[in-house]
Amino acid sequence: MKFTHHTEVKVPILLVDLLSEETGLSKSIVKDCLKKGAVWLRRPKRKEIRVRRAKYQLKKKDSVKLYYDTSILSQPAPEPVCISDEGRYSIWNKPAGLLSQGTKYGDHCSLLRLVEKHFENRDVFLVHRLDREASGLILIAHDRQAAAAFSTIFGHHKDKSVEKWYQATVQKVLGENGKELRIELPLDGKSSTTIVKVIAIDQQRDRSDLLIQILTGRYHQIRRHLSMIGHPIIGDHRYGRPEGEKLHLKACRLSFICPLTGQAKSYTLQ
Predict the structure, then answer these.
(1) Which helix (H) or strand (E) holds 17?
(2) Where would you tag: which of 18, 25, 215, 223 has the fewest CB atoms within 10 A of its CB?
(3) What is the pLDDT of residues 98-153, one digit of tens each?
(4) Residue 251 and residue 258: Cα distance in Å, rounded?
(5) Which long-range contacts (CB under 8 A, 24 or more apart) does 183-189 make?
(6) SS3 helix, strand, coil % of the chain, rounded to 5?
């Protein structure tokens, strides 16, 4: 079941009571929706916010929205792993199946929310993203100044202070071990460059393992570029063909000059 319920508050009332009365959902279900981030509140002349407290006291003219989707609310949240806690930022291994950040319909299956719950008393800011189906390294900032500093260097792909490397397994043998390939094919009308190195081949299964670096940051760049040259990533249902496997794409190495300290930092997944 999926629906959106929008209402303007006529008289002061508790949030859980309002939503239960107007939607017909039980209070326990409404509380689950609140806990998982599917309820939004806007007060006159204020920004819309996500609200989680069942006993939140609503005021007249408050605007409340419930984004209800049982397929999302029932999803389990894969657990991320903290690779390194650096104080003002942390490095995480995001598992496949976990969103980088939530949507209107909830955030319980998002890395940002799980990191927020992990630290409890720290702010969380997303600096860069990984596709939901992909796994690997992501940096989360913990104050606005750190987020701005990291966003600046991560947002400029020509800035050599940041290097992001990925591993992927693709269909067909791309070449001998050690072969390097530079893919320069425009995406969305913009120049795009992906560097690929073959690190292993499987002749029997007709597959290749690749080490990949992107020099630009286009939408689904790695997945699209590899599909365009006839070697879609195994498990890529969008740009390849369904094989009944998860997407074989992992952000395996993250290196940068820390904009907060000037130190060189590097993190690697095996």
Answers:
(1) helix 15-23
(2) 215
(3) 999 999 999 999 999 999 999 999 999 999 999 999 999 999 999 999 999 999 99
(4) 19
(5) 183/225, 183/226, 183/228, 183/229, 185/225, 185/228, 185/229, 187/218, 187/219, 187/221, 187/224, 187/225, 188/218, 188/219
(6) 20, 35, 45
